[in-house]
Specification:
The complex is a heterodimer of chains A (251) and B (208).
Chain A (H helix, E strand, L loop, with lengths): L25 H22 L3 H12 L7 H13 L3 H21 L7 H19 L10 H19 L25 H11 L5 H12 L4 H7 L4 H14 L8
Chain B lengths: L6 H13 L7 H10 L4 H16 L8 H20 L10 H7 L4 H8 L3 H8 L10 H11 L3 H9 L4 H5 L13 H7 L4 H8 L5 H4 L1
The chains are: A mainly alpha (251), B mainly alpha (208).
């Protein structure tokens, strides 16, 4: 079976959005429709197994000798819970954990070591509770998207905890803003710079840098949304560019 | 005009759709979503920002089989505890056992409630004066245990666990209950967390 991450490879430069609803690029929509059809087909295939065959297949997933889409495993877990089949629920969920952990580890972006273990456990235990509460629909459709939202949510909780630490680097409002550097960083270069050193930036500076240079928002828009004046924002951008090693001479 | 839509449910659906993009959004993609869902402009911008930030900070180390197996084992242990939770006694007799039965280990429980190990140990051994427990702590503990607040209050009201307390090192209080604020001050929590707990009002039921 093709892994869920396969649909991550679909191109997304086609912004011909469907007027009937949603804002996803049309090509992405088609990729997801194909993915959902694959999930439905695989789930139906597995549900046609005898209990012994299904158990054997799940043990193969746990042993890494067989691949099953995480969405299919979510759906099978939901079915096992509905049937009140605890052994099958345990085994199916174990297969799901085995399948999903590498993906979740790759999404534990800003942490390492024991913290990754903790985050993944928290996400998976929450998923188990969602399955039992009948709230696992998204995880059973596009698991990568579901996992992305959970990981970003946990990232925000961590960021909120340390939010105060970036306040002290707020610039003073005197001095002339040297913001010419702002217009010189392309989206591509901005992503490269971030990849190399985002950890050097305070949370707010990183957010401003991303919004202006990658998301293409104007400095005025970003300043308003972040509740600071434009001069302060420009100072953040200047400091961010400097911290990331961009001196503006290469443009 | 039709009935007012459920904003939370709509936002969830929009963010689910947004998260279904194959890569973190660029300016054109974000603009397309904002044009389609202008009412969620702020949430979309924040989500896109965090997505790009977290992707830039992603862990690039390969995932080993041993690491995956360790996570599977620890998670399954918590899942089994959750499955056992239905068989839990009506009253909390042993907070440590109840924590495990709720699907937590001590570390995850501490993280969820926002306390450190020294405070948790004192809660388990009931070495805290119940009347000094903050209302938010009572609510957080009960929520993490999937119990009612009154079930945790009943536990907190019981006398200290003498045997457990006697095994503590000589420097620790022996079956003497202390104020919650003292535990916070002596804990290893970061100063902002300590300040937050110290500012919390006591639980009115336990204090009354």
């Amino acid at each position: 079976m093709e892994e869920a991450q396969g649909i991550e490879e679909a191109e997304e430069d086609d912004l011909d959005t469907d007027e009937s609803g949603g804002a996803l690029p049309a090509e992405r929509k088609r990729a997801i429709e194909e993915h959902l059809a694959e999930v439905a087909s695989e789930t139906a295939f597995l549900r046609n197994f005898t209990p012994a065959e299904l158990r054997s297949a799940l043990l193969e997933v746990v042993a890494r000798s067989r691949k099953v889409l995480p969405e299919s495993l979510v759906r099978l877990s939901v079915a096992a819970h509905a049937a009140d089949d605890r052994p099958l629920l345990s085994l199916t969920f174990e297969a799901l954990i085995k399948t999903a952990t590498p993906l979740l580890t790759s999404q534990a972006w800003d942490i390492d070591g024991q913290n990754i273990d903790d985050q993944i456990q928290d996400i998976l235990v929450k998923l188990f509770e969602d399955i039992r509460a009948g709230k696992a629909e998204m995880a059973g459709r596009v698991f990568t998207a579901w996992a992305k939202r959970r990981s970003i949510s946990l990232y925000r909780q961590r960021a909120a905890r340390f939010e105060g630490s970036s306040d002290r680097v707020e610039p003073t409002a005197d001095g002339d803003p040297l913001d010419e550097i702002a217009e010189r960083i392309s989206s591509f270069d901005a992503r490269e710079l971030l990849d190399r050193g985002i950890e050097k930036l305070p949370e707010k500076h990183a957010a401003a840098f991303i919004r202006v240079y990658i998301l293409g928002m104007t400095q005025e828009e970003v300043a308003k949304e972040m509740n600071v004046n434009v001069r302060t924002l420009r100072d953040w951008l200047k400091k961010s560019a400097k911290a990331l090693g961009h001196n503006g001479d290469d443009e | 005009m039709t009935a007012k839509p459920n904003r939370k449910a709509d936002l969830d659906a929009v963010l689910d759709e947004f998260a279904s993009l194959s890569n973190a959004p660029d300016a054109a993609t974000l603009r397309a979503f904002i044009d389609k869902y202008p009412e969620f402009r702020r949430e979309l911008v924040e989500f896109a920002t965090d997505w790009i930030a977290t992707q830039a900070a992603r862990n690039r180390r390969p995932v080993t089989r041993e690491a995956v197996d360790s996570i599977v084992n620890r998670t399954m242990s918590r899942v089994q505890s959750l499955l056992d939770a239905a068989e839990r006694p009506a009253k909390i007799a042993d907070l440590g056992a109840d924590i495990r039965a709720s699907g937590h280990d001590f570390e995850s429980f501490q993280r969820t409630v926002g306390i450190d190990r020294s405070i948790l140990d004192c809660l388990v051994d009931r070495l805290v004066k119940p009347a000094t427990l903050p209302a938010r702590l009572v609510a957080s503990v009960a929520d993490a245990l999937k119990r009612t607040a009154d079930e945790f209050r009943d536990y907190a009201r019981m006398p200290p666990q003498l045997a457990a307390a006697a095994n503590k090192s000589p420097g620790r209080p022996r079956a003497t209950q202390v104020d919650f604020s003292l535990l916070v001050e002596d804990s290893d929590l970061p100063p902002p967390d300590k300040a937050r707990w110290l500012a919390e009002p006591a639980d009115s039921v336990l204090g009354g």
